[in-house]
Automatic annotation (TrEMBL):
<dbReference type="InterPro" id="IPR009081">
    <property type="entry name" value="PP-bd_ACP"/>
</dbReference>
<dbReference type="Pfam" id="PF00550">
    <property type="entry name" value="PP-binding"/>
</dbReference>
<dbReference type="InterPro" id="IPR036736">
    <property type="entry name" value="ACP-like_sf"/>
</dbReference>
<feature type="domain" description="Carrier">
    <location>
        <begin position="2"/>
        <end position="76"/>
    </location>
</feature>
<protein>
    <submittedName>
        <fullName>Acyl carrier protein</fullName>
    </submittedName>
</protein>
C-alpha cells in the first residue's frame, strides 16, 4: 500500500496543486480543498493510471487520503489474486 499512497501524494501535489504539508493519511479530500468535481477527477485519474475499476459514485470529499489509497490497493490486490473485490 505504501507505493500507492506515495503515488497518491505525488498526484495530489502535482495535478491538484495541494501543498505537501497538508497531505496526511487522515486528511480528507475536503480538507485538501478538493471540490466534488476534483474528487471525481482524482478517481478517474487513479482508474486510468492503475487500471482499476474505482466507483466514482463513491468519490466524496469526506474520504481520507488513506481510505483512497486502501481502496486502490484492495483493487490491485484483488486483480493480482485473479478475482473481483
Amino acid at each position: 500500500m505504501e507505493h500507492v499512497y506515495t503515488h497518491l501524494v505525488t498526484l495530489l501535489g502535482d495535478k491538484f496543486e495541494v501543498a505537501a504539508d497538508l497531505i496526511r493519511p487522515d486528511a480528507t479530500l475536503g480538507d485538501l480543498e478538493l471540490d466534488s468535481l476534483a474528487v471525481v477527477e482524482l478517481y478517474v485519474t487513479l482508474q486510468e493510471e492503475w487500471g482499476v475499476p474505482l466507483d466514482d459514485s463513491e468519490a466524496t470529499a469526506e474520504l481520507t487520503v488513506d481510505e483512497v489509497a486502501r481502496s486502490v490497493t484492495a483493487l490491485l490486490d484483488a486483480e493480482k489474486a485473479g478475482g473481483a473485490p
